[in-house]
Amino acid sequence: MKLQKATRFGLYAVIELARDPGRQLSATDIAERYGISANHLAKVLRDLGRAGLVEAARGAGGGYRFTGNARRVTLLDIVTLFERIEGDSGPREAGDDTDVGGALDLVLGEIDDIARATLGSVTISTLLKTMQWQGERRERLK
Questions:
Q1: Residue 33: which residues within 8 A CB-CB, separation 6 or more?
Q2: Whether the Cβ atoms of residue 47 and residue 77 lie closer than 8 Å to each other
Q3: Kind of pairing, strands 63-66 and 54-57?
């Protein structure tokens, strides 16, 4: 599955902010960490704010902080803010009327269902734990 830039930026921002919900980071801080456009990220952060996942604080020392529930917010919640995933609004677009086309549409529909189910089952908290586990594993292997 290929994700659009805005989706990736949204995931980066949520993960970075959810690591320490009490911490505030500017769009520039996050953008520099991931080597992405701060202007594009600022637009994404506004969308995340409208969805209630981040909150902006203005002024000196301002920035963004995570306000969602990391144990409830899933990757699917974030992905669907920025793009449509097949199955979001009814059946897949019909392919051709051949036996092969019908079978292929069925298989592709199942793949979409699996992708949605997987994204919907991984919470921000789970992803953060996975990242921590990977970091610890890398350290042990050194």
A1: 12, 16
A2: no
A3: antiparallel
